[in-house]
Design a protein that fits this description.
- The N terminus is likely disordered.
- Among the domains are: 45 residues, no CATH class; 133 residues, no CATH class; 191 residues, 3 Solenoid (Pectate Lyase C-like); 115 residues, Immunoglobulin-like.
- By secondary structure, the chain is mainly β.
- It contains three helices and 75 strands.
- The termini are far apart.
- Helix 1 packs across helix 2.
Length: 741
């Protein structure tokens, strides 16, 4: 024992209890005298005898043959068990026990740190230090991290802090006389430790403003003991929902949840506080021992529990809320329960870029929603296997291999996710049918959306897909009866939409722009419907190979370097519906009969002709969920509206040129003859011969500027037009009142 130990023990009222009464006046006083005499004479006191190991301030190890190695004077690694004191004199270092043991040999401390800063001690087994000695003693030192050690079977303190401010985390502190002692030490973080089977879990003396949470206090004779009167004041929880500590002697219930524990439903937090003393209370005691979750897979078990219990997921009935970020070295979250919602609350689940790991897994699950979560750096961001009726909503998927994959899964919804910078495919459906993929933003992936191996009857609608390295949308290997509708595809390096050995699909109303190679490609695919797409500024608008009996109608092919290239021209496809075909920006035919259809064919090759090329761009407008109005027009159309009775829209073009509009109106929408007004003036129109019981086709001309077109039923025009104009005027007045200039 040296003079520091004697003084510390006497100051804390502990030293006398360690000696028999008959020795107090003799041995202890003599030791104190010798210690003080050594100080007066400036005689150095050697801790632990001549066998002490030093990590010197200059970075050297003394003696040099001690079982500690370093290559950079920053990280010091044990290479064998140690039975002497390790005295640390150097700041800003890491001491890695490497799983070896630092064991007491009768006298001396384990690690001794005094007046240094920024030292980490980790992965060391520290045991067997005798009475009056410490496994680790830290004096007047700051930012010391003691984390991930096993500290056991020490007859005095496992860890002693004196006038120090440090971090004590993730240690197993068991079977000691005192687990941790804090004396005149403030602002320490004591988090995630296991205190088990000690006489005292924690002893305090003049130490306030420390924070203790996520520790397990199990079967210590005294969980926490404060020597001071008045008592030290410390924080014993991390707030709600993170929680406090687990106390083996807590006998509260868990029937309620919420910040005030007054809402019905369990949350794995006790409904009443755990009281240490009048000034120290754990407001949110844990019902189950805290199990660290860092770098582990987290399970939502079939019984509803979360494993490990320390995971930052709060359960409220069928809702599971992330309350913090998750980092995993394996899979992120595995869901084993049906009929739940996993609400990410914009927290992040992050992997380590393992090609086989999964951010979230659902296997054999149904009615699970994964929403509002950031998922990154996994082989698969979200993976569904043999799962149905699930929803993936509003997640940010970044830097994964596959962002979302469905394997043998049906009737799932993937909607409004941001899927960016993934190494392979944004959304991949493999042997998966009847799924809805809607409204996702998909950018900078190798493939945007891929359907493979008999993925049938899926709806791929209203997605924005930008800068795909290969395919924006790929349907391959017998994927059929899928609807690919109203997607916006921009700047794909190779393919906008590709069908490979897939038939009977509908590709409609998509906008495909600026693909470096192809807008739409069909290879070995037949009986597909390619209708109403706008294909602009691609190297090749449409490329065909070994594909026949496909229908192309109402597409706008604009300024593609090659509008169509057919590698097997002997394979015939249909390029019009007998009444209307496609709009070709390079078509130079005429329209002498003023019906909006070119008078001559647009020739693709000897076996493929558009017999009804359009003189203007084709546009389709949704007026109701079931009825659509179609226009062929050489003007720009804007502000299209249907108010239940009348159709209105604006047309614009180069001033003083002639504009035309061919419009198809479902008779179920407006079933009568019509009146057409251009900027308030009635104009004549032709009712075209292709009109029938279900659709009326009108053709009319006007002079270009910005004009308003209104089409109303003839029988009520004397009433409808004034009412329509009044309604428009009122709308303008209301708007101006709400938005004054």
């Amino acid at each position: 024992m040296n003079w520091l130990h004697v003084i510390l023990l006497l100051e804390n009222g502990e030293g006398l209890g360690r000696f028999r009464a008959g020795l107090v006046s003799g041995v202890s006083v003599l030791v104190l005298f010798v210690a003080l005499f050594g100080v007066v004479l400036n005689v150095p006191v050697v801790k632990g005898g001549s066998g002490t190991i030093y990590i010197r301030a200059d970075g050297s190890i003394d003696p040099p043959d001690a079982p500690i190695s370093t290559v950079d004077n920053v990280t010091y690694t044990l290479i064998d068990n140690v039975y002497e004191t390790i005295m640390v004199e150097r700041s800003n270092i890491i001491i890695d026990g490497n799983g070896y043991t630092l064991q007491g040999s009768g006298s001396g401390d384990g690690f001794y740190l005094s007046d240094i800063n920024n030292v980490t001690i980790t992965r060391t087994n520290i045991k067997g230090f005798s009475p009056l000695w410490y496994g680790i003693i830290v004096t007047r030192s700051f930012n010391i991290s003691i984390c991930g050690n096993n500290i056991m079977n020490n007859s005095h303190y496992g860890i002693g802090l004196f006038a120090s401010h440090n971090n004590i985390c993730d240690n197993n502190i068991t079977d000691n006389d005192r687990g941790i002692g804090l004396y005149s030490s403030h602002n320490n973080f004591v988090v995630g430790n296991n205190f088990a089977n000690n006489v005292y879990g924690i002893r305090l003396g003049d130490s306030s403003d420390n924070i203790f949470y996520h520790n397990n206090f199990i079967n210590n004779e005294v969980q926490v003991y404060d020597e001071d009167i008045p008592k030290s004041i410390n924080a014993w929880d991390n707030g709600y929902p993170s929680g406090g500590n687990y106390w083996s002697d807590y006998n509260g219930t868990d029937l309620l949840n919420g910040l005030y524990q007054n809402e019905t439903g369990t949350d794995n937090i006790g409904d009443t506080p755990y009281t240490i003393d009048a000034n120290n209370v754990d407001n949110y005691p844990l019902i189950h021992p805290y199990v660290p979750f860092e770098h582990q897979t987290i399970y939502v078990r079939a019984d509803g529990s979360v494993d490990p219990s320390g995971a930052p997921i709060l359960r409220k009935g069928g809702l599971y809320f992330l309350t913090g970020n998750i980092n995993s070295d394996a899979d992120g979250i595995v869901v084993e329960k049906d009929n739940i919602v996993v609400e990410g609350s914009d927290f992040t689940v992050e992997g380590r870029e393992d090609g086989f790991s999964h951010g979230t897994i659902l296997s054999g699950r149904s009615n699970v929603t994964i929403q509002n979560t950031n998922i990154k750096n996994f082989g698969y961001g979200i993976y569904l296997d043999s799962s149905s009726d699930n929803s993936i909503v509003g997640n940010n998927m970044t830097d994964n291999g596959e962002a979302i994959e469905l394997d043998k899964s049906s009737n799932n919804t993937i909607v409004e996710n941001n899927i960016t910078n993934n190494a392979d495919t944004g959304i991949w459906l493999d042997e998966s049918s009847n799924n809805n993929v809607v409204g996702n933003n998909i950018e900078n992936n190798t493939n945007g959306i891929e359907l493979g191996r008999s993925s049938n009857c899926n709806k791929i609608n209203e997605n924005s897909i930008t800068a795909s390295e290969s395919h924006a949308i790929l349907l391959c290997y017998s994927s059929s009866n899928n609807d690919v509708v109203e997607n916006n595809i921009t700047a794909s390096k190779e393919y906008g939409i590709r069908l490979y050995k897939s038939s009977n699909n509908s590709i409609s109303r998509n906008i495909i722009t600026d693909s470096y190679y192809l807008g739409i490609n069909l290879y070995s695919s037949s009986n597909n419907s390619i209708n109403g797409n706008t294909i602009t500024n691609n190297s090749i608008g449409i490329l065909l190979g070994s594909s026949s009996d496909n229908t192309f109608c109402h597409n706008n092919l604009i300024n593609n370097t090659a509008q169509v290239d057919d590698l097997t021209p002997e394979q015939a496809n249909l390029w019009d519906n007998g009444c209307e075909g496609n709009y070709w920006s390079d078509y130079n035919g005429t329209d002498a009969n003023h019906d909006g259809i070119g008078d001559s064919n647009y020739t693709i090759d000897a076996d493929n002709n558009d017999k009804c090329p359009l003189m203007g761009m084709f546009t389709e407008f949704n007026t109701t969920s079931e009825q659509h109005v179609q226009t062929i027009c050489n003007s720009t159309i804007s502000d299209f509206q249907f108010n239940g009775t009348a159709i209105s829209f604006n047309v614009s073009g180069e001033n003083d040129t002639t504009g035309f509009c061919r419009i198809c109106i479902p008779t179920a929408l407006m079933h009568t003859t019509y009146k057409v007004f251009v900027s308030g003036t009635e104009v004549s129109y032709n009712l075209l011969s292709c009109s029938n019981e279900s659709h009326s086709y009108l053709y009319f001309n006007y002079t270009h500027s910005t004009q308003e077109v209104i089409i109303i039923p003839e029988f009520s025009s004397f009433l409808i037009l004034p009412l329509f104009m009044i309604a428009t005027l009122l709308a303008v007045i209301v708007y101006k009142r709400k938005h004054p200039v």
